[in-house]
Amino acid sequence: MDRIKIAIVGVGNCASSLIQGIHYYREKTPQDAIGLMHWKIGGYRPGDIEVVAAFDIDERKVGRDLHEAIFSPPNCTTVFYPDLPKSGVIVQMGKVLDGIADHMADYDEKYTFVVADEPEPTEEEVVRILKESGAEVLLNYLPVGSEEATGFYVGCALKAGIALINNIPVFIASDPKGTWPRRFAEVGLPMIGDDVKSQVGATIVHRVLTDLFAKRGVKLERTYQLNTGGNTDFLNMLARNRLASKKISKTEAVQAVTAYRLADENIHVGPSDYVPWQKDNKICFIRIEGKLFGDVPMNLDLRLSVEDSPNSGGVVIDSIRCVKLALERGQGGVLEGPSAYFCKHPPRQFTDDKAYYMTEQFIQGG
């Protein structure tokens, strides 16, 4: 089948894992393809995806071949497919705007961005690059809190006539005013968003446990989720003013599956701290307190350790293929089932089993 051509904004750890995964699974068969939710979607395999354009702002990435750039600092994720051939795609200078937090200048450059001394592109230039590349889908991997920069690239995608997958907690698919979804629907372009869930990460585990409590009749009284990590995502999130949408996204993902809404003081879900030596390893601590039969108290404590960026790779690979199906079907606007299943903050929240069913129905053409 034809390749699904994608463009990426933000050549960080998540982009590195995604690109490594595309090539890794090209060499696999359905029998040994470990770690995927779907081997084929609409006839498309993971290896049928091709990156045709990429944007970043770091001087160690801009101007380099994409397959070299994904291994450049400050990227620190696991390298599970090191022998990538040249891609032929040169990383373009991106628009900075609010894509980098001010405090990151205080850290050693091996941990943070080094902004390239290159002219920033205009909207017209980005649109031209996207069109000339033949990209069908734009993936947003900008840092948390990049509200202006995300709006810039979403507008470019719309003008270039390509679909959108918003992997970060800036509310585009879940825009409270519905402006972005409406504009994409009007021109027949699909989108999935917002804020990608990991395959088995902190939020999905917290949701499943919370849903279990509700279904088993346990009265949920208090819960928290604390996370630490050492990649640039966690370093960026030390700026608490950039975390408003992230905290909403993660908190609402859990609140959506409680039997009844918890008071704000009884739920805390969000990033906790930056530990440099953890690199791309994310450690999550979840505590849930409740009452069982006879009003007898109980509590649950869980510790989860995962490589953060590969944990989202398979989810994004499925998102890309679902968007491709929508493009082939002429379906525009937010893809409700896939957004609810793949993202923390979709326009409408569903339990994960319901979202899974909706996504399977979508894949099958329902």
Brief characterization of the structure:
With about 375 residues, the protein is α/β, with parallel strands linked by helices. The protein contains eleven helices and eleven strands.
Description:
- By secondary structure, this protein is α/β, with parallel strands linked by helices.
- Helices cover 33% and strands 19% of the residues.
- Strands 3-2-1-4-5-6-11 form a 7-stranded parallel β-sheet, with helices on both faces.
- Helix 3 (123-133) packs across helix 4 and helix 6 runs parallel beside helix 8 (244-255).
- The longest helix is centred in the C-terminal third of the chain and has 20 residues, at 310-329.
Biggest sheet details: 7 strands, parallel
Question: Termini, distance in Å?
Answer: 22 Å
Strand content: 15-25%
Rough shape?
Answer: globular
What kind of oligomer do you see? single chain
Provide mean pLDDT, rounded. Answer: 96
Order of helices and strands: EHEHEHEHEHEHEHHEEEHEHH
Show unreliable segments: none
Strand arrangement in the largest pleated sheet: 3-2-1-4-5-6-11
The share of residues in helices is: 25-40%
Number of helices: 11
Q: What is the count of β-strands?
A: 11
Q: Structural class of the helices, strands and pairings?
A: alpha/beta
Radius of gyration computed on alpha carbons:
20 Å
